[in-house]
Amino acid sequence: MAFSLENRKGTINGILFVAIFAAAATMISEIGFVKSLGISPLVIGIVIGIFYANTLHNNTPKEWSRGITFSAKKILRFAIVFYGFRITFQQIGEVGLEGFMVSLIMLSTTFVLGTWAGQKLFKMDRDTSMLSASGASVCGAAAILATEPVLKAEEHKAAIAVSMVVLFGTISMFLYPLLYNMGVFDMSAKEFGIYVGGTIHEVAQVVAVPASIPGASEEMANSAVIVKMTRVIMIAPMLIILGIYLSMSAKKSGATAGGVKLVIPWFAVYFIGMAGFNSFGILPQNVVDIINEIDTFLLTMAMTALGIGTVFSKFKGLGLAPVYTSGLMFAWLLVGGYFITKWVVAVF
Fold first, then answer.
1. Phi, psi at 69, each rounded to 5°
2. What pLDDT digit, counting tens, does each position of 272-317 carry?
3. pTM above 0.70, yes or no
4. Residues 197 and 225: beta-carbon distance below 8 Å
5. How would residue 81 be classed by pLDDT, with cut points 50, 70 and 90?
6. How far apart are alpha carbons 61 and 346 in whole angstroms?
7. Pairwise CA distance, residues 15 & 11, whole Å
8. Which of 145, 169, 172 is CA-nearest to residue 159?
9. In whole angstroms, what is the distance from residue 174 CA to residue 205 CA?
10. Which residue has the higher pLDDT, 347 or 212?
11. What pLDDT sits at residue 262?
């Protein structure tokens, strides 16, 4: 046990070790240039962790490993639950049925496309394919973190998926405003906001896109963020469906003797409950803001711990398959998302 009498000191030291790195990532994310790029502390945390893992990792006391693992697993689940304080059901209702439908269609089609293409076209393993698909289809790094324990995937596979989210999410953040300013998108402000919220990877990147467009209306910015939050809350049902699918697949293949245990990610259920509680507006907004700041730090700790467990030698054999898979999903989000948004707005 991580906190048994003989392991307690090493576990606590490992958690504090991760927290120091997370604090550094948080401070770096507040630097003007970094903040202007919309790079979250979660991404910086995993970069710092990976750098440490491939340079100085051998200097880490072995007894600290339990604390690092605790940060990557247990603290992660706790942080995902409290991620629900970023969302209310009222916000989802504000964008109406069209925002919900764009979110649902883009999430489901992107996840299926990425999972299928990763395994069948580019010969990646199941876990890396699904993690990459969850990051592109839902909410970037946070979705990958939430999906990883359901799949029981290795840390380095999640790190690969996060790196793809960073790459193509960053491209999106610069490409969308450029295409909009060039007049490529024949959309109203609200339509473009729905399109941005329904297709771009990270929440921070969604916020950054309207802010990068001169004269962008408040309607565009609000629609983008609310649709993005709709995608975020959909991570809970997605993970529950994924758990059922994994259970049925194991049963069908006969991989588990004596029956198959249904995998239900309870932290995803609690996440919905927390969003529901937040919808009542019981807590003052300043308290909710503090909770969200703490939650971001805990997520940064989880990402940092994930990075510390990532050694480049484990990547051998994958080649450019993750880039091809994520690139295909990016093309679908960019092009397919445009036509789906236009169709949904016209129909609903």
1. -65, -40
2. 899 899 999 999 999 999 999 999 899 899 888 888 877 777 666 6
3. yes
4. yes
5. confident
6. 60
7. 6
8. 145
9. 9
10. 347
11. 57
Report the distance separating Cα 152 and Cα 38, nearest Å. Answer: 30
Per the structure block, which two tokens stand in for 160? 């690969």
For residues 211 and 173, is the Cβ–Cβ distance under 8 A? Answer: no
Residue whose C-alpha is closest to residue 116's, from 105, 127, 129: 129
Structural domain containing residue 94: 8-347
- 102, 194 in Cβ contact below 8 A? yes
What's the structural domain count of the chain?
A: 1
Q: Using alpha carbons, select from 68, 79, 274 the residue that is nearest to residue 155.
A: 68
Sign of the CA dihedral with 109 first, then 114, 119, and 122 last: positive
In a domain, 326, yes or no: yes
Best CA proximity match to 73, nearest among 5, 10, 135, 158: 158
DSSP class of 138: I
**Cα(268)–Cα(76) distance, integer angstroms:** 12
Q: Report which residue type is found at 73.
A: K
Task: Categorize the per-residue pLDDT at 334 as very low, low, confident or very high, splitting at 50, 70 and 90.
Answer: very high
In this structure, is residue 128 part of a structural domain? Answer: yes
Judge contact between 115 and 130, C-beta under 8 A: yes
Q: Confirm whether 3 is domain-assigned.
A: no
pLDDT recorded at residue 341: 96
Query: Which region holds residue 153: left if phi is over 0, alpha if psi is between -120 and 50, else beta?
Result: beta
Two structure tokens written together for 241 = 């469906």
Length of the chain: 348
Contact 146, 80 (CB under 8 A): yes
What are the tens digits of pLDDT across the range 167-177?
A: 888 788 889 98
